[in-house]
Write a structure and sequence with these properties.
- The protein has 345 residues and is of the alpha+beta class.
- It contains twelve helices and ten strands.
- The strands form three sheets. It has a five-stranded antiparallel beta sheet with strand order 1-2-3-5-4, covered by helices on one side.
- β4 and β5 form a beta hairpin.
- α5 runs parallel beside α9, α6 packs antiparallel against α7 and α11 crosses α12.
C-alpha cells in the first residue's frame, strides 16, 4: 500500500490530479473536510469546484480503537462490491452511488448524501425516537435479506468469502470476548461457529444506527465492508443490541427504546414472513446473537463509547445472566434485559 493519506492537507487533491480526475487548477479549488467518528477508515467529504460532492474512504490496516485490532485494508473493495449488490436490491436513494475504487491505495469514492441530514445514532442518543424511522430500519434490513435470496444467483461468488466477517466481527466480538469471560465462552463459541457456517442470505454485517443517515425522513445506509452471504440473525442481533444498549444508557427513555426494539423486530418479521430463512428458529437465533452483541459491545474489542465502566459492568452481568437461559422470543428478551439492568420498561 502506498503512503497516500487522504486526510492529510493537500494529499487528496494531488492524488486526483495524478489520476487524471482533476486539473491542477480544479484541485486548487477543492474543499476537503475530514469526517470523524469512524474507527476503520480515513474518510473525507469533498466539494468539487463545480458543486458536486463526494465522500472518499481509505481503509486503515490498524483500527482506531483502544486495543490492538488489525484488518486487511482490502476490505474497502468488499464495500464497493456490496454497494453494487445492494443497488440491485434496494430502492433508489437507499445507498449512495459508487463512483470509483482504487485497488492500490485501498480507497473508494461515492456520491455524498446531500445536506441537510442527521446521523441516526446521534438522533437516537438525543432521545428522538420516531416510529416511522424504526419501521424503515426494519423494512430496509428485511429487503436486504429477502433480496439476497431472490438475487442469490446474481451475487458475486466473492460475497461467500467470510474472511473479513471473521476478522472484523467474529474475532473481535465473539472470540475475543469469550477469551476474557469464560462464563460466556460456550454461547459465544457456538454463535461464532454458526455465523461462519450459515449461508442463508445476504448479510450486511454492520447494521447499526451509526451507519444510517436521515435525510427528509428517509434512511440512507452506509458502510458495507463486511457484507457477505451468511447468517441473517447476526444482523438482527447486532442492531437489536444497539437499541437495547441505548435503552440502558438513557434510563428516562428506557421504555421508549424497549418498545422500539419490539416494534423493530415485529416490522422485520412481518416483512420477511414466508421467506425460507424466516420463522421461530430465526427469532431464537436472533435473541442469542443479541445477547452475544450486548456483551461484546461492553467487553469486546469495540466498546460502546457512551456507556461508562459501571454501565458496562451492569450490561455484562445482565447479558451473561440471560445467556444461562436465553429467551425464545425477542419480546421476552427485551423485558428480561430491561429488568436486569434496573427496570424502567
Amino acid at each position: 500500500m502506498s503512503e497516500l493519506n487522504v486526510e492529510a492537507p493537500g494529499a487528496l487533491g494531488a492524488y486526483l490530479v495524478a489520476r487524471g480526475r482533476l486539473s491542477r487548477a480544479e484541485a486548487s479549488r477543492l474543499s476537503v473536510c475530514v469526517l470523524r467518528g469512524g474507527v476503520s477508515n480515513r474518510t473525507v467529504r469533498v466539494r468539487l469546484p463545480w458543486g458536486e460532492e463526494w465522500v472518499v474512504k481509505q481503509a486503515l490496516a490498524k483500527l482506531r480503537v483502544s486495543v490492538d485490532w488489525y484488518a486487511d485494508p482490502a476490505r474497502i473493495h468488499r464495500e464497493a462490491l456490496g454497494m453494487q449488490a445492494l443497488r440491485e436490491i434496494l430502492p433508489a436513494g437507499t445507498i449512495p452511488r459508487l463512483l470509483f475504487e482504487d485497488q492500490e491505495n485501498h480507497l473508494l469514492a461515492m456520491e455524498a448524501v446531500a445536506e441537510p441530514f442527521e446521523n441516526w445514532k446521534e438522533v437516537l442518543l438525543a432521545g428522538r425516537i420516531a416510529d416511522a424511522q424504526v419501521d424503515q430500519f426494519a423494512v430496509l434490513l428485511a429487503a436486504i435479506h429477502a433480496g439476497g435470496v431472490r438475487n442469490r444467483k446474481r451475487l458475486s461468488p466473492e460475497l461467500s468469502n467470510k474472511s473479513l466477517f471473521a476478522a472484523l466481527r467474529v474475532e473481535p466480538y465473539y472470540t475475543y470476548t469469550a477469551s476474557r469471560l469464560p462464563a460466556a465462552a460456550a454461547l459465544l463459541g457456538a454463535l461464532a461457529a454458526e455465523a461462519m457456517a450459515e449461508d442463508a442470505t445476504l448479510v450486511h454485517g454492520d447494521y447499526s444506527p451509526k451507519n444510517i443517515l436521515v435525510r427528509d425522513g428517509r434512511l440512507v445506509l452506509l458502510d458495507h465492508e463486511v457484507i457477505h452471504v451468511g447468517e441473517p440473525a447476526f444482523d438482527l442481533g447486532f442492531s437489536l443490541a444497539h437499541l437495547l444498549s441505548k435503552a440502558h444508557h438513557l434510563p428516562g427513555l428506557r421504555g421508549d427504546f424497549a418498545r422500539a426494539a419490539r416494534s423493530y423486530w415485529g416490522a422485520y418479521a412481518r416483512a420477511v414472513a414466508g421467506e425460507p430463512f424466516a420463522g421461530e428458529e430465526l427469532e431464537r437465533r436472533a435473541v442469542r446473537h443479541t445477547l452475544g452483541c450486548l456483551l461484546a459491545r461492553v467487553a469486546g474489542r469495540s466498546r460502546l463509547e457512551y456507556l461508562d465502566e459501571a454501565a458496562r459492568a451492569r450490561q455484562s452481568s445482565a447479558a451473561i445472566e440471560l445467556m444461562a437461559r436465553p429467551p425464545a422470543r425477542v419480546a421476552e428478551l427485551v423485558g428480561r434485559f430491561v429488568d436486569a439492568i434496573g427496570g424502567g420498561d
